């Protein structure tokens, strides 16, 4: 008996089910996502969220990907029931699909050798990011992060120190009359990291309840009902 047609039908059904589950399903769920009005942390007025990254940050995203940063860092705040990310101060809420609307590709990562970076733009500044790229152990002693010194150059000071020159301790500072400045690639990578801000409160992840001094009374008495007058 020729089982070829039956085998072909089985393979077709398998591929069709895979396509429905991994392509059509996600497209129906999140394919139509768009910017929405929301409240950003620290600002009471509604704003569009998320915002597209500026040009320097988009260039930095390519450098981030090329250097394999996502191999050691994630960009995803887990729900409260799945981890302690919010308690560590990595984010005010869990990550949602809307947070990655303008990311191409989305670099979620899978291993946390280093801290999560989904909200790193709220935890650091330009100088802090550049110093961490140049010598990570200066910021976090014992850090396993490799140094990216090739993103910097040491050059002779021309009358005045450059505005972007790193402020380094004496034991690792360059010789007198020289300075360490970031290359354009380092500035772009820093711009990308500082642009990572998942701070908009969305419908699926509302802000936490406000703490008040109001007293809460508990009682076991049955609820009162308004019965019609007899």
Low-confidence spans: none
Q: And the CATH topology?
A: Cytochrome Bc1 Complex, Chain D, domain 2
Strand element count: 5
* Main sheet record: 3 strands, antiparallel
CATH superfamily: Cytochrome c-like domain
Quaternary structure annotation: single chain
Number of helices: 5
Strand order of the largest sheet: 2-1-5
Number of domains: 1
Helix content: 25-40%
Key traits:
230 residues, three-stranded antiparallel beta sheet, two-stranded antiparallel ribbon
Detailed description of the structure:
- This protein has a single domain (about 30-200), classed as Cytochrome Bc1 Complex, Chain D, domain 2 (Orthogonal Bundle).
- The protein is built from 5 helices and 5 strands, in the order αββαααββαβ.
- The strands form 2 sheets. It has a 3-stranded antiparallel sheet, with no helix packed on it. It has a two-stranded antiparallel sheet with strand order 3-4.
- Helix 3 (about 125-135) crosses helix 5 (about 185-195).
- It has helices at about 5-30, 55-65, 125-135, 135-140, 185-195, and strands at about 35-40, 45-50, 150-155, 180, 200.
- The model has no long low-confidence stretch (mean pLDDT about 85).
